[in-house]
Fold:
Amino acid sequence: MTNTTITAPKGFLAAGLYCGIKASGKPDLALVHCPTGAKAAAMFTTNAIQSAAVIVCKEHIGSTPIYAAVVNSGNANTCTGAKGLVHARRMCRAVSKSLGIETEKVLLASTGIIGHQLPIDAITTGIGQAAEILSDTAEAGLNFAKAIMTTDTRPKQAYRTVNFDGKTVTLAGTAKGAGMIGPNMATTICVLTTDAAISKPMLAKALKIAIGNSLNRLTVDGHQSTNDTAMILASGLAENKPIQSQKDPRFVRFSTTLTDLCTDLARQMALDAEGATRMFTVRVQGAATAAEAFRAARAVADYDLVKCAVHGADPNWGRIICAVGSCGIKVNPDRLCCKIGDTYVFRNGKPTAFDAKKVSAVIAQKEHTITIELNVGKYNDFCYGCDLGHDYITINADYHT
Amino acid sequence: MTNTTITAPKGFLAAGLYCGIKASGKPDLALVHCPTGAKAAAMFTTNAIQSAAVIVCKEHIGSTPIYAAVVNSGNANTCTGAKGLVHARRMCRAVSKSLGIETEKVLLASTGIIGHQLPIDAITTGIGQAAEILSDTAEAGLNFAKAIMTTDTRPKQAYRTVNFDGKTVTLAGTAKGAGMIGPNMATTICVLTTDAAISKPMLAKALKIAIGNSLNRLTVDGHQSTNDTAMILASGLAENKPIQSQKDPRFVRFSTTLTDLCTDLARQMALDAEGATRMFTVRVQGAATAAEAFRAARAVADYDLVKCAVHGADPNWGRIICAVGSCGIKVNPDRLCCKIGDTYVFRNGKPTAFDAKKVSAVIAQKEHTITIELNVGKYNDFCYGCDLGHDYITINADYHT
Structure:
C-alpha cells in the first residue's frame, strides 16, 4: 500500500508516542525529522495571547535549513509566563541534543488546555524516545498524525503528487481540528511535508495561498486559538528544477496542489468537528467589497441558529437572511436571494415556494452549499461550516478539570 | 395582591389571546390601550433586514399621542415583501377601527418565524376580540405578557414605583427573550408602560439609557433579530409635574428606575434563555477605549467555549483569556488578570493557584461574575451572558418546519 502520510515525501522520518501529558494515556508527542535539512515556512495565530510554543517557533522559522519539528498535544503551553517560554526552549533543545542539530533549527507547536505548565521532564524524555524510533514508514507517519490530536475522533491526513520536469513531487500533511476553529490565520495545528525543490519565499507564498483558501475558510465555532500553527517543510529531494518565481507555471501547479491538499484536511476537520454530523459551504456572490463577501460568508457559517437548523436538516432560511442582515455589510433587501443546494428559497426579497422535503434532504447530506446572492457588487467569497450538535456541548462542558 | 403587570400604571388596558397563528394553540396576539393617549418612544433593531412591523412602527412612532400597541408572536412578518407591509398596516387599521382611533397612532411589533405571510384575517378578527376584552386587571396584563412569548418558558414582567412631588409614579414592563439575542439596539420585543408625566424627548432619552444598560448588555447567542423592538408608553396620569429636562433630578431618578426595571427583565431573559441554566456577568476593567471595554465583555459572553464551561461549572479560565486575546483589542499579556467571583485564576500573565472546587461552586450558582482586568487604560464595561446547554440545540434544531 502507498504511504500517504507525512513520511511519504522523500527525506522525512516521523514518530508519535505517549510521553505522559494526557491523562487518557493516548499519544501526545510527535516528531518529524528531515536529516538533509528542509526549507520551511509557517503561519501563526493572530490572537493577542500566544502560546510560548508560537513565540519560540516564530524565532526559529527564519532559520535555514530546518531539521525537525516537535509537536505536543494535551497542553497548550499558553498563559504560562516566563516558565512556559523556558519549557518551549527546552523542548527544542531536547530535539537538538537527540538529533545532533542546532536548537534554532527546530520548529515546535503545542495544543491542548491553556494555563497549565508542561510536564517538561516527561516531554524531554519522550523526545529522546521519539528520536530513537524515527522512521519513514506509513505507520510512523500515522503515529505522528495521532499524537497531535486533542478531541479529534480520528487522525486527518492528506496526500497529493504532481509531476515537475519528469520528476514525481509528493506533498502530504496532517492536521488536528475538532474545536476552537475560527478562520483567522492558520487554524489549529497543521504539519505539511513535501520533497519539492522550492525556494523559501515561494514556499511561504504557496502556504499562504493554500491556508487562505482552506483552513482559513473553515469555521467551527468562530474561535481563534492561541496556538494556531501551520508549517510546511520542503526537503527538495524530488530533484525537480527548483521553483524560484511566482511566474513559474510550476509555482501555480504547486500552490494549487497544496491548496487542494489543505482543503481535503479542512473538510476532514469540519466533518470531525466537535459534535458535528455534517458540513456546508456558504457561497456569497455579488458583494460590494471583497471583505464584505467574506464577512457575510463567515457570518452565516458562524451563526449558531443556522448551524442548529443544519443539524435538524431544517430549511429555516430566515436565519440565513438574518445573519446576512446583521453582519454590517451592504444589503439591498429587494435584490437579496438565497439558495439551498440548487433551490431558491428566497428571491429578490420575497419568499419563494419550494419543496421543503426535498430541500431538507439536501441539507441532510454529508455536505451541501448555501448560496447568498447579494446583487450589490462584484465580489464573491466562501466559507466552510458545520452543524452544531449536542456533542459540542457534551465535549466542551466536560473537557478539563 | 398588587398588580405588577403593564396594566399597573394608571391609564392602561391590556389583553392577550390566541388568534390562530401558533400551531400549538398558545396565545399569540397582545393588545395594550391607553384611552387618554400616551407619549411614546421606541428603539429598533439595526439589522439591515427588518420586519414589516418594524418599518411600519417606525412610521408611527413620531405620532403623539399613541393610543395603542399591538404585538403578535409566532410569525415575524419579515422577508415577506410588499405583502408583508400591507399586512402590517392592516394590523394597525384593525386596531384603529376597533378602538376608534387614528391608524398612525397605533404601534406594532411582530416576533416568530421569518419568511411566512401572516394569517392576516385571523389576526384582524383576533384584534377585534382583544379590543372587546381589554381590561386594567393583573390578569389582563399577564395575558399580554404570555401572548408575546415564543420559545420562552415563562412570561417576563417587572414593576417599579418612584415618588415624584408626592405622587406615586409606576413603571412596568414585559419582554420576550429566549433566543436570537445580541446586544445591538433594543433586543427582542419589550413593552413598557408608565403613568409618569414626561416629555417625549425625555422619555426617548430615558429609554435609550435604560435599554443601553440592560437589554443591550445581554447576549444569548450574539444574534441580532430582524424584529427587535422596545417601546414605552407614558400616560402622564400619575399627575407629577412633567419631567421636561435632562437636568431635572427627577429625570435621573426616572431613568435609573427604568434601567433597574429593564435590568430585571434582562436577567429574567438570561435565566430563561434557550437551554440556559444559569447566567453570568462579564466585567471588563482598564480597557484602552470605551468601545474596546464593551467589545471584550461581549466577546467573552458570546464565546461558545466559555458558555459551555459555565454550563459544566468548569473554571476553564484559559478560554476566557483566549476570547479576550482574539477580539482585536489592546492587550498587555503580562498585565492581564482574570477573576471568577472573587478569586483570581490568572494574574499578570501567569496562572495562579486556586481552589478549583470552590471556584466551580461559584460558577454553579444561578449567577456569577467574571472580571477581566486589562490594565491598559481607564475604560470599564460589562455584558450579561448565559450558559450554552443541550436544550439550545434541541430547541433550535427542531423549531419550525
Remarks:
- The first helix of chain B runs from residue 52 to 60.
- The CA atoms of residues 91 and 124 of chain B lie 6 Å apart.
